[in-house]
Q: What sequence folds into this?
């Protein structure tokens, strides 16, 4: 286990402003040391590093407002900070992610000998109710995938985004991070890089392969290439934006939302919902949970098991509706 510990990477807050955030954007060198260690020694992603920086910047600003140095923090100070987050109306999941970052910082400082002890050692993570993913049904997915009807380069790219997200269960960051060399249409395989830069090989279904083939054929991706040579990272990107650069996570997210709105799914649809739907539908059709775990890149089988709750609920729904002796008179 790393010095930061397991668990979800901390994210920013709920979008609500706090007065302490406005004081300064700087973080102390102790935080910079942690971020450097996460990047160099642990190989954490850019998104994870940005998330840690955001949560720890907020934490350090709160400490400064109380004239407390990071190296002088006591366990009671961390408890007061957690209470402060809750008073600000933060969701319990956001509080948990903030505590992950704070515990990681103090564990790192103690491990490096910067502080004599770890004041966060006995600080427990808040308990967050584990929700069941809200998967689309198969008809809704079919309607969404049929919504891309044009043959312009952007239409071909959008079809790839929807087909590959649903067909492979990739995370949106994994999809936008793909380069041309990561796609092997001959073998119908994709090389994806998940959390912690962990590599896995993912099979690609026929319809997703068809979408990729059309995108890479004449009249597709090549039409979005810029007139001037692009930086290597953009030149090798699988998905491009209208300016010829690598399509961002936000850009791909916008594509998903646009077609979701078009077919009436609205706020129910996000890239992660397509990932949920991929896993749920595979289990509904008899896939082995270990295979789904490997496909999704889950480090622990317990993460994948939440999808079995969805399938079990659907099984009961069908049973109650179809069996004459399923319910009491």
A:
């Amino acid at each position: 286990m790393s010095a930061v510990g397991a668990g979800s990477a901390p994210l920013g807050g709920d979008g609500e402003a706090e007065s302490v955030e406005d004081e300064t954007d700087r973080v102390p060198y102790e935080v910079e040391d942690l971020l450097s260690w996460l990047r160099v020694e642990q190989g954490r992603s850019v998104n994870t590093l940005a998330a840690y920086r955001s949560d720890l910047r907020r934490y350090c600003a709160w400490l400064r407002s109380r004239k407390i140095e990071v190296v002088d923090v006591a366990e009671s100070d961390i408890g007061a900070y957690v209470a402060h987050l809750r008073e600000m109306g933060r969701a319990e999941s956001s509080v948990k992610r903030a505590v992950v970052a704070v515990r990681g910082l103090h564990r790192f400082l103690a491990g490096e000998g910067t502080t004599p002890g770890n004041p966060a050692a006995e600080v427990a993570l808040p308990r967050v109710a584990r929700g069941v993913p809200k998967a689309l049904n198969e008809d809704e997915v079919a309607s969404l995938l049929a919504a891309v009807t044009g043959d312009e380069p952007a239409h071909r790219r959008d079809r790839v985004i929807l087909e590959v997200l649903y067909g492979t269960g990739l995370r949106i960051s994994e999809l936008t991070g793909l380069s041309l060399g990561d796609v092997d249409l001959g073998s119908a395989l994709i090389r994806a890089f998940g959390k912690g830069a962990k590599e896995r090989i993912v099979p690609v279904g026929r319809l997703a392969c068809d979408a990729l083939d059309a995108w890479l054929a004449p009249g597709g991706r090549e039409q979005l290439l810029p007139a001037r040579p692009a930086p290597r990272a953009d030149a090798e990107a699988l998905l491009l934006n209208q300016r010829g650069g690598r399509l961002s996570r936000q850009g791909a997210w916008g594509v998903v939302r646009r077609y979701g709105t078009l077919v009436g799914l609205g706020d129910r649809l996000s890239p992660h919902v397509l990932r949920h739907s991929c896993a749920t539908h595979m289990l509904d059709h008899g896939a082995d949970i270990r295979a789904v775990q490997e496909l999704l890149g889950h480090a622990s089988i317990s993460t994948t098991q939440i999808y079995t709750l969805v399938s079990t609920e659907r099984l009961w729904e069908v049973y109650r509706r179809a069996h004459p002796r399923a319910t009491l008179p």
About this structure: DSSP finds 13 helices and three strands in the chain. The first strand starts at residue 183 and ends at 184. The radius of gyration is 23 Å. The chain has two domains: 19-111, 138-320.
